[in-house]
UniProtKB/TrEMBL annotation:
Keyword terms: Oxidoreductase
Name of this protein: Gfo/Idh/MocA family oxidoreductase
InterPro entries membership: Gfo/Idh/MocA-like_OxRdtase_N, Gfo/Idh/MocA_oxidrdct_glycsds, GFO_IDH_MocA-like_dom, NAD(P)-bd_dom_sf, TAT_signal
Domain of life of the organism encoding this protein: Bacteria
The keyword Oxidoreductase is annotated on this UniProt entry: yes
Domain Gfo/Idh/MocA-like oxidoreductase N-terminal: 49-168
Organism from which the protein derives: Mucilaginibacter terrenus
Domain GFO/IDH/MocA-like oxidoreductase: start-end pairs: 229-339
Coiled-coil intervals, chain numbering: none
Keyword Oxidoreductase in annotation: yes
Length: 464
C-alpha cells in the first residue's frame, strides 16, 4: 500500500472524504496486480502440488474446480463413499484418476501433497488429524469440527505436525472483506456497537433436499464406513447419506453450514477472537421431511470489550422458507456509519454523524410546556448551538464491488497453495476456523438445550 494511501485512510472520517470511485480504482489496481502475477507465474517442476479430494459431493467438486484454477496444481486422486461420484470424477478428470472409497488409501500415497476435506461434517476433524499426521497439507471445509470437543485436538495436531492447514471460509480471502476491514480499522463507521447478519433461502435445493440418484443402493454406497464414527447406528437410508445436512448425526444444521460463514467474515473484519455469550431460538416450520434440525434459526451473540474491539452484539438469522426470495447480508453498525456487506464480493458504507446539539422540538416534550417556557427554552438553545452544530452530517455513500471475474473461492485456494509452497501463514488457520465454528455449534447447543452458552474465546472452551 502506498504511503499516500496510508495517510489518506488514517485521516478518513476527519478532513478527507472517500469516494466510491477512488476506492474502486485503488482496490482494482492493487488486487489485479496480485492476480496477474499469479496468472503469469509458470510453476516449475519443484512448484507442482498434487492434491486429492476426500468427499466428492457438491462442495467436493466445487472445491476441486476452484483448486485447479491455481497454476501448478494437479488432481491425483479422489475419495467418496458413493461409487457414482467416483465414476463422475473419472468422466471429468480422466479414466486414469486414482479413486477409492477409503480415505486412508489417499493418505498413504506419497505422490499426494495436500488434501481437500469436503465430507459430511462428522468426518472433518478425524480425517484432518489423520492427514496432518500423514504429512499432508489440509484444506478443510467449514465447519472445521462436528463437535466443539474436537477443536483443541485438531489445533494440537496442526501444531505438533507443523503441517499447513487452512479452513474453507472464502470470505476471509475476499477482496471486498479486505477492503471493508481497512475501512473499519480506519474508523469509517466510528465505534462499532452491533451487527446483523443473515442468510435466507426459498427453494427446496437451498433447504438441502438434494437430488438422490436412482442407483443409491447399498451395493453402491459404503454405509458402514459412513456411520463408523456415529454413536447411534441406523439402517441404510439414502436421505441420511445424500441429504446429510438435515441430520445432527452427520451435519451441523443451519448454524454449522451458514452461521459459520457469517461469523468468519465478522471475525476477520473486527479482529475478534469470539463472543462471550450465545443464545438461539428457532424451529422446524416448513421442511418437515424427516430432518432433525431447524429450518429457521435466530441467535443473539454477545461480544465483550477486548483489546481488539469494543463490546458489541451480533444477531444471526437463517430462514429456509423466506418470502423475500432468498437473500443474505451483513450490516456492521457503528456510531458514525454502517458497512453493508451484500451476499457477494461487494459492500456499501453509509456515514451519518450525530449532531453536536441534542435537538429541541418535533417529537419532544417541548410543546407540552407553556408558550413562555417554550420561547425561553428555544432562545437559550439557539444561543448555545450554531446551525452547523444542529445538523446531522451526511456524507456520500462509498460503494465497492470486486473487479469483474474475481472469485473469492479461487483466491482462498490460491492463498492456501501459496502457504504450501512457501511456508507463509495461511489466511484461516485452525485457531481462526475453530473460533468461528465453535460459537455457531454453541448456537445448536443453545437451541436444543434451551439455555445461554458461555464461551471463553481466548482459551476456546465452554464455561460451565
Amino acid at each position: 500500500m502506498s504511503t499516500d494511501r496510508r495517510k489518506f485512510l488514517k485521516h478518513l472520517g476527519t478532513s478527507v472524504l472517500l469516494t466510491s470511485a477512488s476506492l474502486t480504482s485503488w482496490a482494482a489496481k492493487e488486487e489485479n496486480e496480485v492476480r496477474l502475477q499469479r496468472a503469469q507465474r509458470i510453476a516449475g517442476p519443484n512448484d507442482k502440488i498434487r492434491i486429492a479430494t476426500i468427499g466428492m459431493g457438491i462442495m467436493g467438486f466445487n472445491d476441486t474446480r476452484a483448486a485447479l484454477t491455481t497454476s501448478g496444481v494437479e488432481l491425483a486422486g479422489v475419495c467418496d463413499l458413493y461409487k457414482g461420484r467416483l465414476d463422475r470424477a473419472k468422466e471429468l478428470y480422466g479414466q486414469s484418476l486414482f479413486t477409492t472409497m477409503d480415505y486412508r488409501e489417499i493418505l498413504g500415497r506419497k505422490d499426494i501433497d495436500a488434501v481437500i476435506i469436503a465430507t459430511s461434517d462428522n468426518w472433518h476433524s478425524q480425517i484432518a488429524i489423520d492427514a496432518m499426521h500423514s504429512k499432508k497439507a489440509v484444506y478443510s471445509e467449514k465447519p472445521m469440527v462436528h463437535l466443539i470437543s474436537q477443536g483443541l485436538a485438531e489445533i494440537k495436531a496442526q501444531q505438533d505436525t507443523k503441517m499447513v492447514m487452512q479452513v474453507g471460509s472464502q470470505r476471509v480471502s475476499s477482496i471486498a472483506y479486505k477492503k471493508a476491514k481497512e475501512m473499519y480499522q480506519a474508523g469509517a463507521i466510528g465505534k462499532i456497537n452491533s451487527i446483523e447478519a443473515s442468510f435466507n433461502r426459498q427453494d427446496a435445493l437451498g433447504a438441502w433436499q438434494y437430488t438422490i440418484p436412482t442407483d443409491a443402493t447399498l451395493a453402491n454406497v459404503d454405509w458402514a464406513r459412513y456411520q463408523a464414527n456415529a454413536k447411534v447406528k441406523y439402517d441404510y437410508d439414502p436421505k441420511r447419506f445424500f441429504r446429510w445436512r438435515n441430520y445432527r448425526e452427520y451435519g451441523t444444521g443451519v448454524a454449522g453450514d451458514l452461521f459459520v460463514h457469517l461469523l468468519s467474515g465478522i471475525h476477520f473484519i473486527t479482529g475478534s477472537k469470539g463472543p462471550e455469550k450465545i443464545y438461539s431460538i428457532g424451529g422446524l416450520t416448513y421442511w418437515k421431511d424427516g430432518r432433525n434440525v431447524p429450518d429457521v434459526m435466530s441467535a443473539v451473540v454477545q461480544y465483550g470489550e477486548t483489546k481488539e474491539h469494543p463490546a458489541f452484539q451480533v444477531t444471526l438469522r437463517v430462514n429456509f422458507v423466506s418470502g423475500d426470495g432468498g437473500s443474505g447480508r451483513t450490516t456492521i453498525t457503528g456510531s458514525e456509519g454502517v458497512i453493508d456487506l451484500g451476499d457477494g464480493d461487494n459492500f456499501t458504507i453509509k456515514r451519518n454523524k450525530m449532531p453536536e446539539a441534542p435537538g429541541i422540538g418535533g417529537w419532544d416534550s417541548l410543546f407540552t410546556y407553556t408558550e413562555a417556557q417554550q420561547k425561553a427554552l428555544l432562545d437559550d438553545y439557539n444561543k448555545k448551538w450554531t446551525e452547523q452544530q444542529k445538523r446531522r452530517t451526511r456524507e456520500p455513500d462509498t460503494v465497492y464491488s470486486a473487479p469483474e471475474g474475481y472469485n473469492s473461492s479461487n483466491e482462498h485456494f490460491a492463498n492456501f497453495f501459496d502457504s504450501v509452497r512457501n511456508g507463509t501463514p495461511v489466511v484461516e488457520d485452525a485457531k481462526f476456523g475453530f473460533r468461528a465454528a465453535a460459537p455457531c455449534l454453541a448456537c445448536n447447543d443453545s437451541y436444543f438445550e434451551n439455555k445461554v452458552i458461555r464461551w471463553d474465546a481466548e482459551n476456546m472452551k465452554i464455561i460451565a
